[in-house]
Batch of 2 targets.
Target 1
Amino acid sequence: MDKKEKLNRIFLILLSLFVVMLGYGILLPTLPYYTERLALGDNLDTDSINFHIGFLTSIYPLFQLLFVVLWGRLSDKYGRKPIIIVGLIGFVIMQLLTGLATSLTMLYVARIFGGIFTSSVIPVSNAYLSDITSEKRRTKIMGWSGVAISSGVIFGPVIGGFLSQTDLHLKYTIGLLHLDRFSVPFLFAALLGLIVLFVVAKWLKNTTRVHTFTTQKASLRFTFTKYFVVLLGLSFVIQFVVTLFETVFSIYGKDELGFNSNQIGIGFMLCGSIMAVLQPLFANNIPILEHNSLFMSKI
């Protein structure tokens, strides 16, 4: 594989990551208002709206957690590209169902469906990047993967907040489907996801990870050392805090600060901007930290 082809593959993978996280970011500022509209349409108690907002936020990563290992195994068996394509198809369907939902039940179905299928995109995309990059450059490429993800969180809330505040007076109902101004951000994300789906399906080459089964049992035990458990625990705490912040900030902004979806989107954009700046910075400094650690161990 020449350098140009490798760069093209990396670009397509980063584009896929960006679009999926863009769709995730679009929902963040609009979810409280969208849930409120659907809850009132279902004649639910207004006191239960915040509960549904929190549950709708949590149910998406819950189903990602349940299915991510399955997608990883399937990608080892069939290659990375088919699984990424399946995830992008699920992403498009989730955005359409979300934008055209007429009840909280449909919104829950959309979130569950999206959690199941989009859980394949991020880990399998990172596995693809790992497959085509050398060990020396892998940390840097993973840093850029983090930039693509953070960029989606930067632009998604702004786009979601802006499009949901448009002056388009759309209001159409077709059976169980409903279209209004809150549908616009999700239809935009679905269209963007469909374009990326076609581009990835046509231009991205498949790759599989070669496994060897000669590894001794002792090395398998080494994988589950206390350091591995500590890293898992740290990852859990970070994701827990981030999800908690995303849920509470949107509710607090709506109920206590009187923000509209556009203002909440700007708040999320600022957080995502800091993440996008810091991730490649830390990734580029990892070799320096490893060198210093090695030097200190020799002393």
Target 2
Amino acid sequence: MNTLPDLLCLSHLRWDFVYQRPQHLMSRAARDRRVYYVEDPMFGTREAHLQVRREGNVTVVQPQLPPGLPDEVAEAHGRRLLQTFLRQEGVAAPLAWVYTPMQLPLLDGLATSAVVYDCMDELANFRYAPPQLRGRERQLFARADVVFTGGQRLYEAKREQHPRVCAFPSSVDVAHFAQARRDLPDPADQRDLPRPRLGFYGVIDERLDTALIGELARRHPQWQIVLLGPVVKIAPETLPRSANLHYLGMKSYTELPGYLAHWDVALLPFAINEATEFISPTKTPEYLAAGVPVVSTPIRDVERPYGEQGLVSIARDVDEFGAAVADLLGQNHAPRQRRADALLAQGSWDRTWEAMQAALVARPPLAARTGRLGQRGWTGGDD
């Protein structure tokens, strides 16, 4: 008999958005327990209700609320709807797994077996971040039993704010992306593009150095630059345009190896700004698992360990970026790939999930409790 508590995940990312850390971890959680994945609310309905759909052992819950509600009223509606639904589902004292501090009020008055803050980004540094986000995060630190960070740089920023912080950098499903090393069909929307091809996939937003991409395309018209992903928080008309720049839209996780199989170099062309100071791009090990050489701007969690180990080329401006790409296009990548494979073999999402569970079990004992914002879950020393 399964005695694991149900898991209640509060996320700012839509389940059907770019497949990344929350989806990887919650899919693994759902192997042996029910998972309730609660998205940010949508506003526009006449009456408040929950939109619920089942995807195997994952139940995706999206509050639908009337427009124009004051924040406190909207939060009260969401909390009432969610907690009523959880009672109807027979959910008692779930493990709360929080990605966004803004959803913390949903836990007010709810009995939980434990609270995990899986801090995958410094959300307060993102464009259009709510002004109350930093205060909510302080409340979440006071409520959380354990804090996980999505990278080493983020760990360094958070480790003094909670007595138990563990770094769990981005992992990878090697078998999935290693499909790109086989002779997969070239997807129809890039099939007719000449080589060499440079590629990027992910969210296209303020974190991307669009000026770098535009200038790289201008200086090297013989290179075809493919960008996959949704455009978010920036106006599409502000993106650079040229005959060798190709915006092919969002692709599913399943489709990505097919695109990677026909790229010559993979790109991490991130801007160096507040929004990227703490990022740990999941696509770094994914590119490497696919067997595609990588050029990145100097993102700290890419430089360490991938740049330091010579697995990713680091470029600080468009001149270095172009030179690095040209160098990689003429290289034999087999030695680098062997070293990359050895590093990737040390980690996987399965191992990360198991290690997270071990870290949670190792915390000081805590009985299920009814929490109020600002209460401390437990006190204890560092690991």
